[in-house]
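Slide 14.
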Amino acid sequence: MGFVNRIRIRLKHLFDRIGNEKLRINLLQAIPFWVASVITGLLAVGYAKLFALAEKGTSYIYFHFAWSLFLITPVCFIIGWWLVKKYAPYSRGSGIPQVMASIELATPKYIEKVSRLLGLRIILIKVLSSLFMVFGGGVIGREGPTIQVAGSVFRTINRWLPKWWPKISKKNMIMTGAAAGLAAAFNTPLGGIVFAVEELTKTHINYFKTAIFSAVIICGLTAQGLLGPYLYLGYPVVSNLSSYIFIGVVAVALLTGLAGAAVSKIILLLFKWKSTFKSNFKQTIYLVAGGLIISSLAFFIDRNALGSGKELMTTVLFTPQKYLPWYAPVLRMTGSVISFTTGGAGGVFAPSLSAGASIGSVVSGFLHLSPDNTNLLILSGMVGFLTGVTRTPFTSAIIVLEMTDRHNLIFYLMLAAMIASIVAVVIDRHSFYDHLKFQYLREITEDTPSQEASSVESAAFSPTQ
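Slide 15: predicted structure.
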């Protein structure tokens, strides 16, 4: 600590010499964002590499010792859940609802409670639990967890600032971290900015737009410096589209919007049922049963029942195997429901994208569409399903647009997002993340023991309604 204090003193002397007071304050306020962005970029890259390695491990086991999944999957699910329950209960699940709740709690009355949702322990347990989950074949993603990791980094940097440092809005720091985390996870800078505006912020963006832009750029450049310039998926061919393909886009958007909202509703109902569990024994039985179901689906039906689904998306977009069997979406959605309700860490972004891609592929096969038209329906399905879950149509469309660099599809993807957002209301008026955010807010503000969404169906206590 003596070394750190000496650095702080020298920095204070250095900035005291800057004559222009406004320039000095602006520079001091910008530095924490820059430092946190670099750290977030490094962590996001490391996490992505570990996650990919875990998925490769699952594939190796499947092709060489598939029978062992009946043991490995339940054990990994139990370990993933136990790590969360024992060391960081609020590291469970996606991480995006925790960040949303943290932003609402970033007020003088509740600010200290934010540490239960964002912090160094959260980072460690989030990563470890999700790695065990995905190694066991869990249908989870790393994107939501990356956002909670990023929010934790920015929150921690803010807390470590010395007392003489110019004050920085805690809400803005967390929101900027979330945007940077999404940008680093998908390599989609615009997606990160739109996500912050559409999903997170209740404040006028003019107050911190420079912070968001600079954080997203620095975080993205840090990730690209290590991974190189890349697209999350690649460049699918969509040059020869039918003039009537928008009808297929509408149909896929309707299906995926309803399916995304339905999957979210089922997860919430399972959470409500699981909240009646009074012992760890029942939870363990649920984990073992869920692990055996997923491993059975993979062993007896299709290996696409395992993992985040990124391989499925690249297969249908970039190989001749474009038309999946009718049961592929069922496998993806079933695996996502089971994996997310285990209580371990893991997100729904990538599983939602892959489920939507599988629906688009099945519809294209049914209609006997050309490869280019099929690619469009696959991308539209990704947008529609993600919108059905998150209710963020602009974010969903921009993310898919950026991860494929197909700018000529912008109107099709926006159409799919708009339709999916509208029809999802038929299933539930509120988004999946909103339900979970309300639950976290109630747990934190009432200091109740951390349980899995005991009444997440009701949003009557929402402060934003």
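Speaker note: Residues 449-465 have pLDDT under 50 and may be disordered.
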